[in-house]
Amino acid sequence: MASQYELSRIMRPDDANIVGNVHGGTILKMIEEAGCIIGTRHCNTQSGDRCLAALARVERTDFLHPMFIGEVAHVSAEITYTSKHSVEVQVNVLAENIVTGAKKVTNKATLWYVPISLQNVDKIIEVPPIEYSSPEREEAGKKRYEAQKLERLEDKVRNGEIIMSVSLPEPFTVVCSQSSLIHLVGPSDCTLHGFVHGGVTMKLMDEVAGIVAARHCKTNIVTASVDAINFHRKIKKGCVITVSGRMTFTSNKSMEIEVFVDADPLVEAEKGKYRAVTAFFTYISLDKENKPLPVPPLKLEGEEEQKRFEEGKARYLQNKAKRLADKERQQ
Amino acid sequence: MASQYELSRIMRPDDANIVGNVHGGTILKMIEEAGCIIGTRHCNTQSGDRCLAALARVERTDFLHPMFIGEVAHVSAEITYTSKHSVEVQVNVLAENIVTGAKKVTNKATLWYVPISLQNVDKIIEVPPIEYSSPEREEAGKKRYEAQKLERLEDKVRNGEIIMSVSLPEPFTVVCSQSSLIHLVGPSDCTLHGFVHGGVTMKLMDEVAGIVAARHCKTNIVTASVDAINFHRKIKKGCVITVSGRMTFTSNKSMEIEVFVDADPLVEAEKGKYRAVTAFFTYISLDKENKPLPVPPLKLEGEEEQKRFEEGKARYLQNKAKRLADKERQQ
Amino acid sequence: MASQYELSRIMRPDDANIVGNVHGGTILKMIEEAGCIIGTRHCNTQSGDRCLAALARVERTDFLHPMFIGEVAHVSAEITYTSKHSVEVQVNVLAENIVTGAKKVTNKATLWYVPISLQNVDKIIEVPPIEYSSPEREEAGKKRYEAQKLERLEDKVRNGEIIMSVSLPEPFTVVCSQSSLIHLVGPSDCTLHGFVHGGVTMKLMDEVAGIVAARHCKTNIVTASVDAINFHRKIKKGCVITVSGRMTFTSNKSMEIEVFVDADPLVEAEKGKYRAVTAFFTYISLDKENKPLPVPPLKLEGEEEQKRFEEGKARYLQNKAKRLADKERQQ
């Protein structure tokens, strides 16, 4: 039947936390993939514009039982209602232990999709109607449709009010581009011993530095260099890492970003948060032909920022002198 | 020769930014992987404790040329010096365009590793010496070793001083557990049309909510439910997503976390940041037999938090009543 | 029915090359995941030791059509024969374009699994028999079983010798395109038992073969087929895998690449490096309309290469004859 779809896959260490419970987020992602596939497939069963089903709403979803690494998740989706412009998909998730044969329902979810034209992504196209097994089913679907429509509307109004009152920082200041991310250390981030690979930490540091640089100059940016990095303290599996970056210095063609890595051992809370690594990344801004672009100068606020800028400038001049000396020696 | 090693792999869309430049972080990660492999292999060529090479320091690294999707990165590593307790690895990275045949050196890096015993991760074992092609080489290596040792020491002292002056928030407050992450939308997060899959957004939301919950109760936590989520605005490829979570309510056995998703179109900055999604996640805390544990009550500060707590409580009671009604209807 | 299983997922950018063709390796990995799930499930339908189905052999597999990013791959697996200690699984792969609704069969594969006890990974347990729809089916299965058993034995004997020595390359020679990559086995590459999934190994083999092919003909290349692969030895978590490929034969429109997988247990260095798998991949070169292009002939150097070329030619002619015979039989 065109209006049914099943997806399944085995749960791997990266899908779960360190005690083996599959993350709710992994399950939600599979649910939405199934919904998107069945919705897109259905809305393209007619002639006219080709389209893509875009997620508009997920109803309240309960996680009835934990799922574990090694189990197979079966995600089955069915279209249960269609209005003129939206599709209701119901999705069930079943966890199967292929060794013991035990099965249990872990989730039942309801998603609403809206078909967006591929020619014009701002256009919503019409949904081909489905057939219902009984008039009661259609009627019940219509009720669910009306109820969610109302809630979406209310939510839109409510959201309109509380819209981000974040005081917008002035462009090109340190505050304006500073960024941080948290990352829950997963199995693939670690050595066999349960310590984070230095390379994983460096990749996250570069990611944050890149976002700071892009926020500052709004162009395509690339890493030009990384200053020496010392790894004083190991980071253990199960930690949450906070990686923060702030711009310290700009020259005509480059930006220096200071990056901090703090580790928080969450469960072993008595150990407390500690600074694991710090480093300076230098970025440059490129145009479409990969040629360097000028960088907007950093606007400094306060003595601290001024001091850090001067230190960055010293590092910049020192590296420049070193590069020149290396060049001369080679000639 | 045991002390040489080469790793290579093709660069994929997820390794790069939207214009196709491979992230510096991807390259740093490969460099460190090669260093870790050659270092671990070398330190296990003797009898005695089995060990793992842990990264202690990376020297300043320049990115000489951009690398692109579809190119093959060749990372070759060589052990160039060994002291009693550390190993110096030099790594070269070459980008090869397998279609045109063009090759260019993109990086030269120097990494220092320390072998950690697998029996006791706090014990550093001795490094088997390498043979040098000339006494000059050994002498030069020794100089590099002394220089970096000094810098590491200085850095340790400096870091000890400036250690996180972050004022520690009081436990069990909203501020104490609140968390946020930024995520640069990559190709695999998106549909063919360049919009973020709803499932990807939900997975990030669950990740942040989980970290908030774990920070609050320091135990193994799992998602119990997600309230209805509305997706009012699409998120486009190349955006930076900020996902923030804060605890709003605790009952005896559950925690409610409010999660916000803000999208920042970086390059098309005129569009400005906007709130894309908000939702409430409910988490429970589990013991080692996967049985629910009591949750420490949330400490409220100020009227705003009190108001949000009451709203959370109303949602909690409403859901509880609904579950009971559903149960009765089924009997 | 317990002996059927279907897996499906949408193809993402990282599953494909830069022109959007899904890698043969991605498909091989999904095929093996389906086979492993159905095999493990079946072998646990009896009382006694719990077990895991370990891949022992994959029969020659053809790639009938290219698959593209955005398409949904449907992988369905069925158990078609059981001997005392092994399970034959047949897997079909279908590519569905959910926008146009077009579907095409892209692969038909046959895999052999052996159930390994979870209590003792060196013990092979007995396989519960399946029921056959007719005695003819059982008889045909038995013939396939005997044939592959013989081939596995022969292959075990043949495997030994060789490894490559690199010097500077003349275009279109074997040395010019030969390639190798190294991969540190991570948690998500492994089963719950800490052994590498056969599918992960095949994906890496296809990646190397693809690089060899692209280096040789500098065009868009796709996997056309894989010869039977035998998995003689398991690979453990924490190993470093070296995957090397070299071209052995070219016809007008195809290239044959031999791929070796060597496992190096790093920490348990006394165990030494060993050859885990070898296989032959056939690639074709495509133009922008996905039509086959002529392949530059391989320049042979030395008797060894000449001999391998002749052997490759024999395999090529044999497969061609077999395809013709199959076609005639179907008419």
TrEMBL record, chains A, B, C:
Top-level taxon of the source organism: Eukaryota
Q: Which InterPro entries match?
A: Cytosol_ACT, HOTDOG_ACOT, HotDog_dom_sf, Thioestr_dom
* Active site per database record: 17, 206
Q: Where is the HotDog ACOT-type domain?
A: 1-119, 175-289
**Protein EC:** 3.1.2.2
> Which key words are in the record?
Cytoplasm, Hydrolase, Lipid metabolism, Repeat, Serine esterase
Name the chain's protein.
palmitoyl-CoA hydrolase
> From which source organism is this entry?
Danio rerio
Taxonomic lineage from the root: Eukaryota, Metazoa, Chordata, Craniata, Vertebrata
